[in-house]
Specification:
The protein is mainly beta. Helices cover 10% and strands 48% of the residues.
Length: 155
């Protein structure tokens, strides 16, 4: 009888050792939502390219991100002239910064007199979707020049 209990005990121990333990496993889900916000803090005309014409537009857009340590977002900026003619530019921006300013240099864009509209939009798709936009209206005097419009941004 002692032998059958010993065999039963050994069989039970072997059977239990084959069952993988469920304790010690931890699953972590990031529940913090990632967000983005933008604010056009300045936009006006000037002579950025030194051609003697104040037909360039300079703008600053503040970007704030939250919820992660790395971000990739789509950034669209559109400058609309008084006539309705629009210049749109799209960028994909990757960054580890949570706050920064994008400096826009629109060369040879301010070619009409009247009210200009600068619109900036951003969409963050990391772990969810956050979209924001901001519009800034300003009135540069008429421009001239004749060069092809060009945009440069920096941070």
């Amino acid at each position: 009888m002692k032998t059958s209990y010993a065999i039963l005990f050994i069989t039970t121990i072997l059977a239990l050792s084959m069952i993988p333990p469920s304790f010690g496993r931890v699953s972590i889900n990031n529940t913090r939502e990632q967000t983005i916000s933008i604010n056009i803090t300045f936009a006006n005309y000037t002579d950025l390219d030194g051609d003697g014409f104040q037909d360039d537009v300079y703008a600053e857009v503040e970007v704030k991100l939250d919820g992660s340590s790395a971000y990739t977002f789509e950034y669209n900026v559109t400058l609309t002239l008084p006539s309705g003619l629009s210049f749109s530019y799209k960028f994909i921006i990757s960054t580890n910064y949570q706050s920064f300013i994008i400096y826009h240099y629109f060369f040879d864009h301010a070619i009409e007199s009247g009210w200009y509209t600068l619109n900036a939009e951003a969409t963050l798709n990391n772990g969810g979707r956050s979209t924001t936009s901001n519009t800034f209206v300003f009135d540069p005097p008429g421009g001239s020049g004749g060069s092809d419009p060009d945009l440069v941004i920096s941070t």
